[in-house]
Write a structure and sequence with these properties.
homodimer; 192 residues; mainly alpha; Arc Repressor Mutant, subunit A; Tetracycline Repressor, domain 2; 2 domains; 76% helix; elongated; DNA-binding
DNA sequence: CAGCGTATAGAACGATCGTTCTCAAAACAA
DNA sequence: TTGTTTTGAGAACGATCGTTCTATACGCTG
């Protein structure tokens, strides 16, 4: 087995465990057992737990970014592309493994004691806002729209996580439609 | 010193520490020292750490609920009362001690391993949605509006916490104005 | 087969967790 | 004062944390 295989397996296992139960609740021994790797090999690949955490955050960032972009590319019209992120959220929330945004969660857990985690979470959210900003600019919307839609997306994530339902995606999407149509000066359709 | 004084001081100290650094990062010994109370007295007042955590959650819930309601009562018009929550958020975000919503944070930290914490967080957020629902109903808005504004408020909290700025309150407020005016069928003012 | 280098499983380390116990000082009763 | 009870600070407990070390099994070369 190559070194890359081992690394990948460790990160994938840590991804699952950290997402399901949080970072501090998962010890190195449990990760070692679940990944089927010796403790020595684990520390051969990663110098410390925090380096595994950072690798998992990178995986989460890549997975989220790619998944979102793929979903956005399915839409053609600028308005639909702006709203596609909420369809992506809906799919995500529907997964059994969904337990909230890993960045919000890891920031809540470790943001105050780990500057690295805090900064990575901040950059991830910032890159999302920048991405939404590009979509909004393509649609010709004023610059206010992007942070508003981003806040809606964040709120949907925490609401879905805590409430345990995926309704939040639908609510957020309908709110986004109103905001987008107002920004583009279209008449927004209202559920009479 | 009465028993109530000791309890109150322990809870107030735990409030500060848990808010600033998270729950799992603060040990009983640190809490004991910061509260100026012997370990024996601490365990005399609370049978376990988790009971302290629950007491702090109750304090957070009461503080948030009362603060929000006080702010809402300052406004008279139904529309202003609906938007007042975002002014309350703005004040909160501006405090030095702000480090995100304690319920979102504690849910992220312990929701998966402590059913009590998960349920309390769920109920807190649900009670907020119900409160917003009453405000929306008083304004004559359709039932869709309340969850949408709630999601905006949640998103503002996580965004303000992670980004470290209080801009999110303003963005959320402006988005809320558009949603409220659309729901009430008023022409929404746009920043041309 | 003999001998050597590597990889592994898991024992063990020091630190810290939540919690309990000890034991001396303080407070009170008579 | 003397005897009893309550309080106090903090030592100590077992468990678990992240991390390191050791002792054994294995694969290779000759």
């Amino acid at each position: 087995m190559t070194s890359d295989d081992v690394r990948t397996r460790i990160i994938a296992t840590a991804d699952d465990l950290y997402n399901a139960r949080g970072i501090q609740s998962v010890g190195m021994d449990e990760l070692r057992t679940a990944a089927g790797v010796s403790l020595k090999k684990l520390y051969q690949e990663f110098p410390s737990k925090s380096s595994i955490v950072m690798a998992v955050l990178e995986r989460w960032h890549a997975s989220w970014t790619e998944g979102l972009d793929a979903r956005v590319r399915q839409a053609d019209a600028p308005r639909d592309r702006l709203l596609a992120m909420f369809d992506y959220l809906a799919e995500w929330f529907g997964q059994d493994s969904f337990r909230g945004c890993g960045f919000i969660n890891s920031f809540a857990e470790l943001g105050a004691v780990s500057p690295d985690v805090a900064e990575y979470a901040r950059k991830h959210k910032e890159s999302f806002q920048v991405y939404v900003g590009h979509l909004a600019a393509d649609a010709g919307a004023p610059s206010d729209l992007a942070p508003q839609l981003s806040i809606l997306a964040e709120g949907a994530q925490t609401t879905a996580a805590i409430a345990g339902t995926s309704d939040a995606a639908g609510h957020a999407r309908r709110a986004a439609e109103v905001l987008v149509d107002a920004a583009l000066m279209r008449p927004s359709r209202r559920a009479g």
